[in-house]
Write a structure and sequence with these properties.
The structure is a homodimer. In chain A, strands 1-2 form a two-stranded antiparallel ribbon. Chain A has a single domain (about 1-330), classed as Farnesyl Diphosphate Synthase. In chain A, a hairpin with a 2-residue loop joins strand 1 (about 90-95) and strand 2. The relative contact order of chain A is 0.12. The longest helix of chain A has about 45 residues, at about 45-90. The first copy, chain A, has helices at about 1-20, 30-40, 45-90, 100-105, 105-125, 135-160, 170-195, 200-225, 230, 235-240, 245-255, 255-265, 275-285, 290-310, 315-330; strands at about 90-95, 95. With about 325 residues, chain A is mainly α. At the A-B interface, helix 3, helix 5 and helix 6 of A face helix 3, helix 5 and helix 6 of B.
C-alpha cells in the first residue's frame, strides 16, 4: 500500500489547505457549522480518486487542473453526511458531535445546503484553472446527475428500513445510487480533467462504481463484525436501526419462516445488546459475512483489472489506484 | 396590469407543463414529496422574470432558450421553501400542509436536496436548447453564487430572530441575500439568455434586486396589516416569531427605552392575540408601515426607470416588467 499511502497523505494536505482557503464567508456560525465535519477528518477517499485518476491518465498537469473538482466532490460528500446525520438522528461522526447536535437542526440543514452550493462553486472554478468550457460544463452536469442518484438512493435506503422483502438486487442498486455514484463521479471527473476519451471515462467510471459498492459492502460487514475500538463506530449500529445491509439480507434469505420471525424480533431500536449480538451471530453462521466479503472481493478484483488495462502517464498513480481497490475491502476501519 | 397578467398566465402554464415532464423518477414517494409544494401553486414570479427579461431583450427566440433556466429558478425557489418550512417549523404553505408535515423531516430534507440538484439539471439543459457553452457555464456559476447568498441570508435571518439591536442596513442586507439575490439571478439569467452585454445584464440584475427587496418589504407589511383572508397566511405570524421585519425595526427604533421593554413583551411565541394586535398597532402608529411602504415604492420606481431605459426587442414584455415592479408593492396578497 506504499503508493496509496504516499499519494493519500499528499492529497489530503492539498485538499485540506484548499478547502480552508475557499470555504470562507459570513455569518461566521454558518461557516463554522459547515466546516465542522470536514475539519474532524475523514479518509478524503473521493478527492484522492479524482486526483489519482487525473494523474494516472494525464500526469501532473491534469492533476493540477483536477484540484477544484477534487475539492468539490469532498465538499459534496460532506454535505450528504451532514444531512444524513440529521435524517438518521446520529449523534457522533468522526469522533465529534454531529452538526445538528452542536448547532441544532435548522443550522445543520443550512450548513449542508451551503456545502452543496460550494461544491458547485468549486467545480465551476475548474474552468478558471484551465479546464475548457465544454468540459467544465460537462463536469457540472455529471455532478448533478450524481446528486440526483444519491438522493434517490438515500430515499430507497430510508424506505428499505421499514421493509423485509428486499432482494439483493435492490440492495445493490441502492448502494450504487447512494454510495457508488459519487465515487463513480470522482473517477469520471479525474478522467475528464485529463482530457480522456469517452471510453476511458466510462471505464474509470466503472472502476469507481465497483470500488464504491465494494467499499459500502465492507462498511456493512464492519458494522456487524468490526471492532468498535478500531472502526470508531458504535457497535451494532446498523442492526439497531434495522438497516438492510448485504450480510443481513443474504443470511435472512436463508432462514425458515419461523427463524425469520425470531430474527426480526432480535433487531431494531428496542433490542438489547444481547439480542443484537445474537442476530450478528446468526448472520455470520448463515454465511452473510463470507458471502458479502466474497462479493466485495470480486468487485475489487474487477476494479483492479480495469486499472491494469490503462495506459498510464504516471505509474505511481496507477499503482495507488490498484492498491486502493484492494484496500477498500481489506481495511479494518 | 394587462400585459403582466397575460404573460404571467402563459408562462405559468408553460413552466408547469415543463416541470411536470422533467421532474420524474424513483422512488415515487421522493418525487411526490418534491413536487408537493410546486403543485400547490405559487406566483411563478421568478420564471416570469427570466422569460420576460429574455423576451424583452431578445424576442421569442431568447425566450425559448431561457425556458430551462426559468424552470431551474422556480425549482430552486421551491427547494428553499421546503427547507425553510422545516427550519421555521411551519405547518402550512400555499394552503396545503408543508412537506415535512406530510412525509416527515428526513424525507423533506431529501426532497429539498433533490430539487436543489434538479435546478442544476434543468439549468444544464439550457446548453441543449441553444445557449452557447460559455453562457451555460456562466448561468450555472451565477446560480451557484445566488444559492450561497441565499444560505447566508437565511442564516442571518435566523440569527436576527434572537437579536434586538438590528439596524435597518443589516435588515436590508439580509433581505437582499435571502430574497433579492434569487430574483436578481432570474433577471440576469434572462438577460444572459438574450445574449445581452455585461452592462445590460448588470442593469437588469439591479432591477431584479430592487424588485426582490421591495417584494419582501411588502410581504413584511402584509404580515402586519394584511387581511389573512386575502393573504392566506396566519395573522401576526412574523410577530409571533419575533421576526425582525422592516416595519418592526423602524418603529422599534423610535421607542423610548421603557416603550422598547414593553414592546418586546408583546411579541413572540407566548404572546396572546391581543398583545400581538397591540404590537401591530404600535408599529403602525410609530410610522413603521408608512416608512416601509415609502421605501418599497422608492425601490419600485427605480426598478421601473431601469426597464424604461431598455431598448426592447419586444414591447409587451417590457410593459409587463414595468407593471411587475409596481405590482410587487401594490398587491394585497
Amino acid at each position: 500500500m506504499e503508493h496509496l499511502t504516499r499519494l493519500s497523505k499528499r492529497y489530503s494536505m492539498l485538499i485540506d489547505e484548499y478547502l480552508r482557503e475557499k470555504l470562507r464567508g459570513e455569518p461566521e456560525v454558518l461557516y463554522e457549522a459547515s466546516l465542522h465535519i470536514i475539519k474532524a477528518g475523514g479518509k478524503r477517499l473521493r478527492p484522492l480518486l479524482v486526483l489519482a485518476t487525473a494523474r494516472m491518465l494525464g500526469g501532473v498537469e491534469a492533476e493540477a487542473r483536477a484540484l477544484p473538482l477534487a475539492a468539490a466532490v469532498e465538499v459534496l460528500h460532506n454535505f450528504t453526511l451532514i444531512h444524513d446525520d440529521i435524517m438518521d438522528q446520529d449523534d457522533f461522526r468522526r469522533g465529534v458531535p454531529t452538526v445538528h447536535k452542536v448547532w441544532g437542526v435548522p443550522m445543520a440543514i443550512l450548513a449542508g445546503d451551503l456545502l452543496f452550493a460550494y461544491a458547485y462553486k468549486l467545480a465551476g472554478e475548474a474552468a478558471d484553472s484551465g479546464l475548457p468550457h465544454a468540459e467544465a460544463l460537462r463536469a457540472l452536469r455529471e455532478m448533478t446527475e450524481a446528486i440526483v442518484r444519491i438522493s434517490e438512493g438515500q430515499a430507497m435506503d430510508m424506505l428499505m428500513e421499514a421493509k423485509w422483502d428486499v432482494g439483493i438486487h435492490d440492495y445493490l442498486k441502492m448502494v450504487y445510487l447512494k454510495t457508488g455514484s459519487l465515487i463513480e463521479l470522482s473517477t469520471r471527473l479525474g478522467a475528464i480533467s485529463a482530457g480522456a476519451g469517452n471510453e476511458v471515462v466510462s471505464l474509470m467510471g466503472e472502476y469507481g462504481k465497483l470500488v464504491g459498492v465494494a467499499f459500502q459492502i465492507k462498511d456493512d460487514i464492519l458494522g456487524i463484525i468490526g471492532d468498535p475500538r478500531v472502526t470508531g463506530k458504535p457497535v451494532y449500529n446498523d442492526l439497531r436501526r434495522a438497516k438492510k445491509t448485504l450480510p443481513l439480507l443474504y443470511a435472512y434469505s436463508k432462514l425458515s419462516e419461523e427463524e425469520k420471525r425470531e430474527f426480526r424480533s432480535l433487531i431494531g431500536g428496542e433490542a438489547t445488546e444481547e439480542e443484537l449480538s445474537r442476530a450478528a451471530k446468526i448472520i455470520e453462521e448463515r454465511g452473510g459475512i463470507s458471502y458479502s466479503l466474497g462479493l466485495a472481493r470480486e468487485l475489487s478484483e474487477r476494479a483492479v483489472e480495469i486499472v491494469k488495462s490503462m495506459e498510464p502517464a504516471d505509474v505511481e498513480a496507477k499503482k495507488a489506484l490498484e492498491e486502493l481497490a484492494v484496500y477498500v475491502v481489506e481495511r479494518e476501519k
